[in-house]
Amino acid sequence: MIPPSGSGEFDLIARIRARVRDRGDVVVGIGDDAAVLQPPAGQQLAITTDTLNVGVHFFAETRARDLGWKALAVNLSDLAAMGAEPAWCTLSLSLPESDPAWLDEFIEGFLDLAGEQRIALVGGDTTRGPLSIAVTAIGCVDAGRALRRAGACLEDDVWVSGTLGDAAAALAPWPTPRDALRRRLERPQPRVALGRQLVGLAHAAADVSDGLLADLGHICRASGMGAEIWLPSLPASETLLALEANDRVAWQASGGDDYELCFTAASSQRDAIARLAKELDLPLTRIGRIVAGNEVVALDALGRPWRGERNGYAHF
Ligand code: ADP
Ligand code: MG
């Protein structure tokens, strides 16, 4: 039952609790001092936290539903990059005021995605303050099998899922709104199924949250390798291609918020990866290769190194 509109912290928590779905492995969920969870035998836990702050990660006017979706999506994207199966999450909300209608919408977006990915909301915290949302997500992965940033090997292929640059393009000042781009920014699809299938197939993986070159840079640093990326090979959506914008390549190579997976794999896996793309109905594009060194070099159509203005988003 949804409790009557109230203003207190406990009314808000009760509104959330009334809507969460159960999972058999939640021994104690919302309502006690801590959740108690039962991990499957032989599995390890992957744990990740991401915070969204108003004015930094999203505009104040962002719809509550989209915010709820995205707060969970960015965390599921990190679990996907580890090859983990989402299991449980917590939600810390800092809210400037008690607004039950806003909260209901927020929770609806959050639980839409939680239901899709079978992740249970098992606890959190609700406080007053500037609008800020912190989610912790926990996933399970067979012991010793998690995908890592470290592990890229010399001459591996570099792959990326989906398309790049839509979210960055959505932030550009277009004369007319581009709904397809906005949707990519506001409703990212974490590549959870792909991540799980990449276990045992990919050598290294990361999700593309800060920008392809920056995130591939993390893989290279962790692996003690360099990479060469072919800019003309970067996948773009039809919407993005139709724009013919000068910034397109920069958005694809260094724009943030794509939440695709970038991974490396031996060239002997090309057929398996092509089959996986078919099975998941998700484009998987070979965009470069791992080389010796410690740099990520992006090459244009003529094989000339390309330098963007920035390689990704950094807070400080
Ligand atoms: P405590 O004071 O013991 O930390 P709280 O009053 O903060 O307990 O929380 C009561 C219960 O509600 C706990 O189980 C907590 O995990 C849960 N909870 C609080 N806020 C949220 C939230 N935003 N989303 C989900 N669960 C929440
Ligand atoms: Mg608390």
TrEMBL record:
Q: Where does Mg(2+) 2 bind?
A: D50, D78
Q: List each copy of the PurM-like N-terminal domain by range.
A: 31-141
Cross-referenced Pfam families, in alphabetical order?
Answer: AIRS (PF00586), AIRS_C (PF02769)
Segments forming domain PurM-like C-terminal: 193-297
Q: What is its EC number?
A: 2.7.4.16
Q: Could you say which residues bind ATP here?
A: G124, D125, R149, S209
Where along this sequence does the record place binding of Mg(2+) 4? D33, T48, D78
UniProt binding sites for substrate: H57, D257, Y313
Query: What biological processes does GO assign it?
Result: thiamine biosynthetic process; thiamine diphosphate biosynthetic process
Q: Which InterPro entries match?
A: PurM-like_C_dom, PurM-like_C_sf, PurM-like_N, PurM-like_N_sf, ThiL-like
Sequence positions that bind Mg(2+) 5: D210
Q: In which pathway does it act?
A: Cofactor biosynthesis; thiamine diphosphate biosynthesis; thiamine diphosphate from thiamine phosphate: step 1/1
**Which UniProt keyword terms apply here?**
ATP-binding, Kinase, Magnesium, Metal-binding, Nucleotide-binding, Thiamine biosynthesis, Transferase
UniProt binding sites for Mg(2+) 3:
D33, D78, D207
KW Metal-binding (keyword) present = yes
Catalytic reaction annotation: thiamine phosphate + ATP = thiamine diphosphate + ADP
So where does Mg(2+) 1 get bound?
T49, D50, D125
Please give the Gene Ontology molecular function terms for this protein: ATP binding; magnesium ion binding; thiamine-phosphate kinase activity
* NCBIfam families, A to Z: thiL
Question: What does the record's miscellaneous section state?
Answer: Reaction mechanism of ThiL seems to utilize a direct, inline transfer of the gamma-phosphate of ATP to TMP rather than a phosphorylated enzyme intermediate.
What family does the database annotate?
Belongs to the thiamine-monophosphate kinase family.
Q: What does this protein do?
A: Catalyzes the ATP-dependent phosphorylation of thiamine-monophosphate (TMP) to form thiamine-pyrophosphate (TPP), the active form of vitamin B1.
PANTHER family on file: THIAMINE-MONOPHOSPHATE KINASE
Q: What is this protein called?
A: Thiamine-monophosphate kinase
- What is the organism of origin for this protein? Pseudoxanthomonas indica
